[in-house]
Design a protein that fits this description.
heterotrimer, A alpha/beta (845), B alpha+beta (266), C mainly alpha (306), B: 266 residues, four-stranded mixed sheet, two-stranded antiparallel ribbon, C: 306 residues, mainly alpha, two-stranded antiparallel sheet, binds ligand MGD, binds iron/sulfur cluster, binds molybdenum atom
Chain lengths: 845, 266, 306
């Protein structure tokens, strides 16, 4: 970001929620006069730092970004400066031709070809909650007489499985004129997203929108780059991933991907939340972003899995190596070629086991017990429903630093204080484990830019507080003992699981595992000699000779005495500032991904100013570690029969993609459409101004009486509400509302509303107000401020209000739980909730 | 004596995160007001409201939005003791509790202060107040203890955007002037420095870059030394005293006179 | 906003009000007493002694009040002696510092004078002590003492002006104003007390009342100039304390007694009434000036006005 000429912060309140990272935008602003743009429903502390503030109604970013896309591809600059076309034609799938039977949302009034009933499993896990689903065949690339996969021998080598997936290269038209080229489809898809339409949908004044469009155009090209940054202002929608995809589309069109000062920065949340998706605590993926083996997909055998998830071209062709090395790390010696490296022992997903459905299942009595480690669900979405879930557990373990709302739900929750529920009627047995803090244990953090940094133990935990590693380690050891002499097939996995994290020469805290041992296991080593660490994922093999838990982290611990996450040498000032000796970034200590795109097709830097990685005639070199085969010249042609990267030409920067280019159009990967389309949030006061289709046709909705939704235009709930964070507090508040120094900075729960709405409702500043939805009602103080404004949406006034959600009934300062208001609706791809845009009523309490 | 050290605060990059407030409280172990349990002020995001004996940093929030919301601004400024070169508080303190350090900063020695509270009334910026914990007047020490240990003040170190910059005053003033020119060039004619020259109390060793009138930030336009009133006030008092004396003498003389008159009449 | 509004209030309350009031009376009484002592006649002696007694008592009470107002009362001496070095500490430009010494020295003279008075009254059988109120030494004590008396009466106002607070720092006339008030309240006190001392000569009392009236007139003039000198800051008095200033100080405290006294029909309770009113006025004046300013305080980025 330090290198950006323009930074658009959209879907994040970066200054308030990432104050330390925000030093970089401020550096760019002060040192190189970069333009800062903030797009947000509220004027926040980030807007205060911005050169342009663009107000938008919550949930309308696809309309805004789509408008930018439409503006950009029709702009004089984009069509006159050859840079854009050169980048787009060579580095994206703009020229690729799509199947003839594909129908766009533009032609089907808001849905794509292939929409149908949800056919997934409804009986043994009736909590997936999809409204519908897409059959994606029509979205695929058009390929001349595509080969049909040749049948395979049952024990064929994995590489044959991969080879069997090879397809003929898709048809292309580099003039981009063919009506079914991705580029023409994009142009067609967004043609109605005009500045006027943007104003009608988002409420953002036309002139402001155009100011933003001009700013990003002027700051993109050979010599300048624009960066986008977002967080949960984008994700927490029933079409969150599509918002991000829409931004990717725009950034590709502007040639801002894979270049210094460009890109899309996802600002992650909790400390090391990035790490917890890399080394996943996610139910649906295993290490290194491989999908979790699933009972719902063709994953029956190891080969089925590879055939379903693998790809013949692009770097994913190496999946067998990643997966086998992962299985070796799971099951060690027990994993052999004969037993498919224990693949059958691996647990398989049987449905959507993410947060929301799990709590619905709990509420319906499908879950016996829960280990709640570092989470506070009693205050989470549709809180009263989640607490219903907690009440239906037989046992609950809370491991936390404080007696959180979750630990205290059975004697202090609103329904208990209100007398509707009696503690003696709650069956749940609650165990509380006092937890150590991060500073009281050592380990690694992986931050927003994929950077692993080691932190050392600064203090010993008080009393019998124990670290999370201690807890997990001890639990695993006990479970292994429990299953030690079971012969049940389903327990074989546990029996064969390799678990060796005890420190060699003891630990000050009895039972604490050795954090470096864990990182070594993740990094990987030669199976026959664990002291020979792997130095990079290039060394991985699919024959069991390598053991590696997570291929993307391979190389962080290249030798038993070299933990690169511990490095702390910054570059001297004035340099390009890649800081390659500070910590270690996955993959391969790469700071900018797909950085081959920072050079033109012939391998020359696009410009002196934006030099990053280039071809020096013999090899790829530069400030960063090149994201490309080191010796592959730009002139190299792709081998049509080649496997993996051999199939790619020397001008294909996006090595993870089967076709080596960035996708403007997504034939696969997304469940809700190949192109981003504006839908209204699950709850909205107005009808979708763009299409007949109101909401995403495939979103997830858990239909329950205690999870009712408001119909479009229901006058009882006329206001758009969004929820968010404050610098002064942290999430559900356990880490801030218990600290008097922080508590006093924001002592009370409040709702931000415009003077216009306040006047309408006779509400004065600091009055108590009542906020209600079909799910619940809460009280908060009114903060009447012009930082919020009424929007005019297709002709009528729509009031936007907002609430920080940090309060609860435990701690130094307390307040109502904002999530009493929210509903369980989810995005189809990742099941994230829609806490950012729903409707409510507000009145004087 | 080492060169004068102080703060240059660039309010245009202050994100109002209050890290400076918290860092100060943490380092100086200052209590939270009422154990942290307060009412929301309703004054934008400012719930600290003032500098006093337990709040040595105070981040101000100024919302400037016209009805139609075009070109609105939300100004933020982290207020603190200005460490005036000619410090009113130091000037009037009768116990000598307030001293000027080798870093040209102004520090209250809590153990010498007897709580007469004249400094509170003397400070033109409303910085000082009694800290109920010590029952003496207290304020920012510019982390005297840390400076002596060669450390940066806690607040400046915590500031994520370098809105608070600590260093030798000379350098800071240079940097600040360049920033003002940059802002003017970028079309912010209101950009100005406050306290960077001798005009205000001989200069403020904690000076500010503002983008509006000082009054907008709650800063006095032209603060003065309290002793500016000393001569005139004293002179006028003496004058009145003399008048009183005269009145007394004259009336007494007059009384004598009448007396004699009476005598003669008899 | 006037610059002085962006400041914090020192929380000076009743102790200070009382101190300023009592200090004023003490100073005023000593001055009057010494005046009668030096230029008066034998029949004035009882009132002279009375004045010295009051001055002494007032000095003691003042010291106590001033100390009680400190948040660290036991460190009162820090104002006179540097606590770390132990050497005497005087900052001539700091009214608080000078004031501390002034009070001390006034106290000393008042003690001598009061002691002398006691001896003269025959309550103490120690001849040399009487010398403090007679002859050359007596003259010196009287002269110096009344100078300190004036100082005590006036410095309190100067002290307020040598700050940055609204009202106080916005005018240079507070010292003068308090001085007038000291004179009038001093005289009024003596008038009241002579009711108890039957040896007080009517002529002296008559003079006291006359002196009091002159002081009041002077006070009214200075008060008017003071309010005028505040300019826009005067808005502070658009409220409760303004009412006190107008009704309590000007009306009840000055005009009314003047009217009473100047009335022909002169029953013997009139001077008492008048004197009482004058004292009340003096107290109201200190209250209006101190609390009127105290109510202004900088909050957020603005100012809290009443
Ligand atoms: N101080 C502090 N920092 C934190 C956290 C905290 O609790 N406190 N939490 C951490 C975590 S876990 C996370 S995930 C991150 C979240 O970081 P952010 O996403 O930055 O935090 P939020 O405040 O939830 O949302 C950001 C902004 O999105 C805006 N917004 C709401 N709806 C929309 C929309 O439809 N479009 C657009 N463009 N904007 C919208 C809101 O007005 C808000 O200003 O912060 C992390 N950092
Ligand atoms: N309406 C609405 N709801 C939201 C959001 C929103 O924007 N709007 N944001 C969502 C987002 S992005 C997130 S991330 C979630 C967060 O929701 P939660 O994760 O449920 O909330 P936290 O308060 O972060 O809970 C973390 C707990 O971990 C404890 N803790 C801290 N350190 C440790 C440790 O080392 N070990 C252990 N065992 N415990 C520790 C803390 O005390 C705290 O109680 O909330 C979601 N909910
Ligand atoms: S809270 Fe921690 S992670 Fe978040 S910005 Fe501050 S320092 Fe960084
Ligand atoms: S700002 Fe106030 S407290 Fe600080 S030095 Fe100046 S006068 Fe003293
Ligand atoms: S309160 Fe303390 S520091 Fe302030 S002037 Fe009085 S003695 Fe000095
Ligand atoms: S310099 Fe030290 S004392 Fe002063 S505000 Fe900063 S942290 Fe607090
Ligand atoms: S820490 Fe820096 S940015 Fe944050 S409020 Fe203080 S001065 Fe402003
Ligand atoms: Mo998060």
């Amino acid at each position: 970001m330090e290198h950006s000429d323009c930074i658009v912060i959209e879907g994040s309140n970066m200054a308030e929620c990432h104050p330390v990272a925000f030093r970089w935008p401020m550096k760019a602003k002060v040192e190189r006069g970069a333009k800062i743009i903030h797009v947000d429903p509220r004027f926040t502390r980030t807007s205060a730092m911005a050169d342009i503030y663009a107000p938008v109604r919550a949930g309308t970013d696809i309309a805004f970004l789509g408008g930018l896309i439409n503006y950009v591809i029709n702009s004089e600059r984009w069509n006159s400066d050859p840079f854009f076309r050169e980048y787009v034609v060579n580095y994206t799938n703009a020229a690729t031709i799509i199947n003839a039977d594909y129908r766009d949302a533009e032609d089907l009034d808001g849905v794509f070809s292939g929409l149908m009933e949800y056919t997934g499993n409804k009986k043994d896990w009736p909590f997936d909650a999809f409204l519908g689903q897409y059959e994606t065949a029509t979205w695929q690339y058009a390929r001349p007489e595509d080969r049909s996969p040749s049948p395979l021998a049952p024990h064929a080598p994995f590489i044959d499985v991969i080879r069997s997936l090879r397809r003929t290269p898709p048809q292309r038209d580099e003039t981009l004129r063919h009506p079914r080229t991705v580029f023409q489809l994009v142009r067609h898809h967004f043609k109605r997203y005009t500045p006027e339409m943007v104003e009608r949908v988002t409420g953002c004044p036309r002139d402001t929108f155009i100011e933003v469009a001009e700013a990003i155009l002027q700051n993109s090209g050979r010599d300048r780059t624009t960066a986008w940054t977002y967080a949960v202002g984008w994700t927490q929608h029933t079409y969150g991933p599509q918002m991000i995809g829409c931004c990717a589309l725009l950034q590709l069109l502007l040639g801002n991907i894979g270049r210094p000062g460009g890109g899309i920065m996802a600002l992650r949340g909790h400390a090391s939340i990035q790490g917890s998706t890399d080394v996943p605590t996610l139910y649906h993926s295993i290490h290194g972003y491989m999908p979790a083996p699933s009972a719902l997909k063709r994953h029956g055998t190891l080969r089925d899995y590879l055939a379903t998830e693998g790809s013949a071209t692009g770097y994913w062709a190496n999946m067998p190596k990643f997966l086998v090395s992962y299985l070796k790390s799971m099951y060690g010696a027990a994993a052999t070629a004969a037993n498919d490296f224990g693949y059958d022992w691996h647990p398989k997903v049987s449905g959507d086991h993410s947060h929301l459905p799990m709590f619905v299942a709990m509420a319906e009595g499908h879950v016996k017990g829960m280990l709640c480690i570092g989470q506070n669900p009693a205050t989470s979405l549709n809180a009263s429903l989640e607490r219903k879930g907690l009440r239906n557990l037989e046992w609950l373990v809370v491991k936390d630093n404080f007696i959180t709302e979750t630990a205290a739900f059975w004697y202090r929750a609103p329904e208990v204080e209100g007398g509707d529920v009696k503690p003696e009627d709650i069956q749940t047995e609650v165990f509380f484990f006092p937890s150590a803090q991060v500073a009281e244990t050592e380990g690694s953090f992986t931050n927003t830019q994929r950077l692993l940094q080691w932190h050392f133990q600064a203090a010993t935990p008080p009393g019998d507080c124990r670290s999370d590693p201690w807890f997990t380690h001890q639990l695993a050891l006990r479970l292994k003992r429990l299953y030690a002499d079971s012969d049940l097939p389903r327990d074989q996995g546990f029996k064969n699981l390799v678990w060796d994290f005890d420190p060699v020469e003891g630990h000050a805290i009895p039972g604490e595992p050795d954090a470096e041992k864990v990182l070594k296991e993740i990094n990987g080593y030669r199976t026959e000699d664990p002291s020979r660490h792997l130095t990079g994922f290039g060394e991985l093999a699919d024959d069991g000779s390598t053991t590696c838990a997570s291929w993307i982290y391979c190389g962080v611990f290249p030798a038993p005495d070299r933990n690169l996450a511990k490095r702390k040498e910054p570059d001297p000032p004035g340099g390009p500032g890649a800081h390659l000796n500070w910590g270690w970034a996955w993959p391969a200590n790469r700071r900018v991904m797909y950085n081959r795109a920072s050079a033109d097709p012939d391998g020359r830097p696009w410009s002196e100013r934006k030099r990053w990685v280039w071809w020096d005639g013999a090899k790829w070199t530069g400030y960063d570690s090149p994201d490309f085969p080191p010796a592959k010249p730009p002139s190299a042609r792709g081998d049509p029969d080649g496997i993996g990267l051999d199939a790619h030409s020397g001008r294909s920067p996006f090595i993870m993609k089967p076709d080596g280019v960035g996708w403007l159009f997504n034939p696969t990967g997304l469940l809700d459409g190949p192109l981003p389309t504006h839908y209204e949030p699950a709850e909205s006061p107005i009808h979708n101004p763009l299409y007949g289709r109101q909401t995403s046709p495939v979103l997830k909705y858990w239909r329950r009486d205690d999870n009712a939704l408001v119909d479009v235009g229901d006058e009882r709930f006329p206001y758009v509400i969004t929820t968010y964070r404050l610098t002064e507090h942290y999430l559900a508040g356990a880490m801030s509302r218990w600290n008097p120094w922080l508590a006093q900075l924001m002592p009370e729960l409040f709702i931000e509303l415009s003077p216009e709405l306040a006047a309408e409702k006779g509400i004065r500043n600091t009055d108590w107000v009542r906020i209600s939805t079909p799910r619940g009602a809460i009280r908060a103080k009114a903060l009447v401020t012009r930082r919020l404004r009424p929007f005019v949406i297709s002709g009528r006034t729509v009031h936007q209000v907002g609430m920080p959600w940090h309060w609860g009934w435990q701690g130094v300062v307390t307040g109502d739980v904002v999530n009493e208001l929210t509903a369980l609706v989810g995005d189809p791809n990742v099941s994230i909730h829609e806490g950012k845009a729903f409707v409510c009523n507000v009145e004087r309490a | 004596m080492p060169e004068a050290m102080g703060f240059y605060t660039d309010t245009t990059v202050c994100i109002g995160c209050k890290a400076c407030e918290v860092a100060c409280k943490a380092w100086n172990q200052l209590p939270a007001t009422n154990g942290g349990v307060l009412e929301m002020s309703g004054d934008s995001y400012d719930n600290t409201q003032r500098l006093d004996g337990i709040n040595w940093r105070h981040v101000k929030f100024i919302e400037q939005f016209p009805d139609d919301r075009v070109a609105g601004r939300w100004l933020m400024m982290s207020d603190v003791c200005k460490h005036c070169v000619r410090a009113p508080c130091l000037e009037v303190c009768p116990t000598g509790a307030i001293i000027r350090t080798e870093f040209d900063t102004v520090v209250i020695q809590s153990d010498a202060c007897n709580g007469c509270r004249l400094c509170i009334a003397a400070c033109p910026f409303g910085v000082i107040d009694i800290n109920p914990a010590s029952n003496t007047a207290q304020k920012c020490t510019l982390c005297y203890d840390r400076l002596k240990a060669g450390l940066e003040p806690a607040c400046a170190q915590a500031c994520p955007t370098d809105s608070i910059q600590f260093g030798p005053i000379g350098e800071l003033k240079e940097r600040a002037r360049r920033r003002v020119e940059q802002l003017r060039a970028l079309g912010e004619p209101r950009a100005r420095l406050y306290g960077a020259d001798e005009a205000i109390l001989g200069g403020l060793n904690s000076f500010y870059l503002l983008v509006d009138e000082p009054g907008v930030y709650g800063l006095p336009r032209n603060p003065q030394l309290p002793t500016r009133n000393l001569r005139a006030s004293s002179a006028l008092s003496v004058a009145v005293a003399l008048v009183m004396g005269l009145v007394g003498l004259v009336t007494l003389r007059a009384r004598r006179a009448n007396k004699r008159a009476e005598v003669h009449d008899a | 906003m006037p610059d002085t509004f962006y400041t914090a209030s020192p929380h000076w309350g009743w102790y200070i009000v009382a101190y300023f009031f009592v200090g004023g009376i003490a100073g005023g009484c000593f001055f009057i007493a010494s005046l009668l002592h030096l230029c008066g006649r034998p029949e004035d002696r009882p009132v002279v002694r009375l004045g010295y007694y009051v001055a002494f008592a007032g000095a003691v009470v003042s010291g106590v009040l001033l100390t009680l107002d400190l948040t660290k009362p036991l460190r009162f001496w820090h104002m006179l002696i540097a606590s770390n070095t132990g050497v005497p500490l005087l900052k001539p430009w700091s009214p608080m510092s000078v004031g501390a010494w002034g009070l001390l020295l006034f106290g000393a003279h008042a003690t001598l004078a009061a002691g002398g008075a006691l001896a003269e009254d025959g309550r103490i059988r120690w001849r040399p002590l009487a010398g403090m109120v007679s002859g050359a030494p007596g003259m010196i004590v009287a002269a110096l003492g009344s100078a300190f008396g004036f100082f005590l009466a006036g410095y309190t106002g100067v002290l307020l002006s040598v700050t940055s607070r609204p009202v106080w720092a916005d005018s240079n006339l507070l010292g003068a104003l308090f001085l007038c008030s000291a004179a009038s309240t001093g005289a009024a006190t003596l008038v009241l007390l002579t009711r108890r001392r039957h040896d007080a000569h009517p002529a002296t009392i008559a003079w006291l009342s006359q002196f009091d009236r002159t002081a009041l007139v002077l006070e009214l003039i200075v008060l008017t100039l003071f309010v005028a000198s505040l300019g826009t800051v005067g808005r502070v008095f658009l409220g409760w304390w303004g009412a006190v200033l107008l009704g309590g100080v000007v009306g009840a405290g000055a005009i009314l007694p003047l009217v009473l006294e100047s009335r022909r029909s002169h029953d013997q309770r009139t001077p008492v009434r008048a004197a009482t009113l004058v004292l009340a006025g003096g107290l109201f004046l200190r209250m209006a000036v101190i609390f009127g300013s105290e109510q202004v305080r900088a909050v957020g980025s603005g100012v809290a006005l009443p």
